[in-house]
Design a protein that fits this description.
Blueprint (H helix, E strand, L loop, with lengths): L13 H9 L37 H25 L3 H33 L11
Helix pairs in contact: 1-3, 2-3
This protein binds zinc ion.
């Protein structure tokens, strides 16, 4: 099934698609949900029917998530260590759960972003042709 927007070769806005994907919305219509489970992309948009199973996010979302979380947690950890010199158990109690929470929060955002970008530039069958 293809959506009305997919019948033409009209340009797709990359930034709009990335914003919609990051908000867990269909990159085509911005209405339907992009995920059917925590990290499972739905096969077709429930609102416009756009095929979303073409995505190949693969390792990109975890890579971007590690990059983002690492750049948030490591400087904060170093600043706390240099400023307050807390015991090791304090570091473990703070940074372990914080890293886990940030990772689980940011991972679906980066995956939606990658899928939205792939849809916008017609990668992996999003343009109507096979790879
Ligand atoms: Zn849609």
């Amino acid at each position: 099934m293809t959506s009305i927007a997919d019948t033409a070769d009209e340009p797709r806005s990359v930034w709009r698609s990335i914003r919609r994907g990051a908000a867990f919305k269909c990159p085509s219509c911005g209405e339907g949900q992009i995920f059917r489970k925590y990290l499972k992309i739905t096969d077709n948009c429930s609102q416009c029917g756009e095929e979303l199973h073409h995505h190949r996010a693969d390792d990109a979302p975890p890579y971007f998530t590690i990059f983002i979380v690492g750049h948030m947690v490591v400087p904060a950890m170093l600043w706390i260590e240099m400023s307050y010199r807390p015991d090791v158990w304090v570091h473990a109690a703070i940074w372990g759960p914080l890293t886990l929470a940030l990772t689980l929060t940011i991972l679906p955002i980066t995956k939606g972003t990658v899928v939205g970008m792939q849809w916008a530039v017609r990668m992996h069958g999003f343009g109507g042709q096979e790879d």
